[in-house]
## 1
Amino acid sequence: MKRIAVLTSGGDAPGMNAAIRAVVRNGIYRGLKVYGIRKGFSGLLNEDFVEMDLRSVADIIHRGGTILQTARCEEFKTEEGLHKGTEILRRRGIDGLVVIGGDGSFRGALALTRRGVPAVGVPGTIDNDIPGTDLTIGFDTAVNNAIQAVDKIRDTATSHERTFVIEVMGRRAGDIALAAGLAVGAETILIPEEPYSIDEVVDRLKKSVARGKRHSILLVAEGVGQATDIAAEIRSRTGWETRVTVLGHLQRGGSPTAVDRVLASRMGAMAVDLLLEGQSGKMVALQRNALVAVDLDEAMKGTHRPDLGLYTLARILSI
Ligand code: ADP
């Protein structure tokens, strides 16, 4: 193995830069030439390659987003696209590829591996929705961003005795809502993995008001539905002033937390080590705080489940 390449694909996540840095620096440390591919698989098809040196990843560990940029590329999902990508990597003498992204990106990585280009995945997504790993790069920062925003909203909620329905990201997963909800002491957390009844939600709200709470915060995962609809239901059943905030892309940007920087550094470095060991079709995963290699295939076939113990605990602690 002499030359490897790295790309970021799918949604951006804070910590991706720290992962790129780790791939480049560990690769060079181990005597490899390392190329960056800009804009994900679309950059691969457009041959947007750049040779990386130690300095090209200087001063990025603390920056959100991804210096290699990211893109979605429909062409890469086709036979022709995959064939073209494989040929480009072969012609350029790339012996291994590190794909930093989510499950969609891993499908591309696995398809390349099956065509003879060894590829390893590094889980980078704020949603934490990848089976096989306890944590993905970007999740911790997104949760912290959500917490900071909710803490600010709480000041207004308390001052005005209002109910706030706050929608957080997560695609189909409730992980961000669960972790942020527990951390801010939300009265109610709604996640797609747990069915809820609006009657019970309203009942809990009324009880908390009856025992003197001056505000209520409901954290709703985007996978549950629109926060505006839930707020309208609460308003119509209680007559209370109910405000909605959709945190949106605020959660996704900004400087990565220590947890994400350390995780990304460890995972990026391990991806290079795996390629050097001759492993491919693997994803670097965190399980019980140890890094392990799991089959990309398994990671994609499995179903992600958030830690529902947090859900139960949050309900107990917010009585
Ligand atoms: P994420 O990686 O965050 O889940 P997407 O699902 O949008 O994001 O996937 C990112 C990119 O990965 C897609 O735009 C496409 O280029 C590539 N990809 C997704 N699915 C496949 C597939 N089945 N085969 C090949 N490439 C794929």
## 2
Amino acid sequence: MREVNSRKAAIIGCGFVGAASAFALMQSGLFSEMVLIDANRRKAEGEALDISHGLPFAKPMRIYAGDYDDLTDAAIIIVTAGAAQRIGETRLDLVRRNVEIFRSIIPEVARRDCGGILLIVANPVDILTCVAAKLSGFPENRVFGSGTVLDTARLKYRLGEHLGVDPRSVHAFIIGEHGDSEIAAWSSAHVSGVPLRDFCASCGCADEQVLRGIAEEVKNSAYEIIQRKAATYYGIAMSVRRICEAIVRDEKSVLPVSTMQHGAFGIEGLALSLPVIVGRGGAESQVPIRLSGQETLDLQASAATLKSILSQIEL
Ligand code: NAD
């Protein structure tokens, strides 16, 4: 296995999400080399050129369109390649199409004997993380999904707005599936050490209905954005940047990424999001989160939803 270059990133899939992530990473100064790969080579070339033209205003780095041979020494390989849902297509049909895309991508990555981390972003991210873990044969700490990092950012943003505080002072997680069965873990939420409900009471906004509404809004954000502009990409691009930062700087940050589960809350054999320590080793270890009885049941229901989809996919 070739040694990885900790300052090199690769992005597979240069559509809205891949290109926005590349742009966010260019601005981050985290990497000195970034290769863009897409089934449509000219698209990758165009994005590489366009983003490179911003370099005089950023930190030096090399950005280029490449192919799978360029992955061997990449520290992080971000997979955003995926098909969008067609009109009238069921969710399961979309899953099958994206699994087929992964069947063409992941073995190519695995064949290069890469020592880097596979960060899955394409949807359904939890299912595709399982697929990537299985097809790559990489150790599980080196294959994980962006999971509910974006949903958690949306929750913090909305709570910050509601409470009149900086969203960075809000500590709360969305856990479970990145999708319709996700859960807002209210019982562990706090504002800089003050339990969320106490904080709400102190500022006169302790309305359970409002909190439930915020969780619903977060869950439906992607639908709302897609209805207006056909795709979501800036929020996820910043989430990708945040995850990369935690890895490259070996931050040991706690992020709700999607990892393979082995028994926490009775869940195993699938990937979903729970708080995880993220550092140079990738998804290094799960952080024990305390959940209420109802939150535990909801998390188990979310896992059951994912399991039923997984059971219909042949790998
Ligand atoms: P897009 O259609 O704009 O881009 C997809 C890109 O993948 C295209 O450029 C296409 O040429 C490329 N591609 C397809 N098959 C390929 C293959 N076999 N090899 C290499 N490249 C291939 O879509 P998008 O809006 O960028 O979304 C990409 C994915 O990201 C979707 O699955 C979307 O649902 C997902 N997404 C995830 C999150 C998240 O939070 N995880 C958020 C937003 C979007």
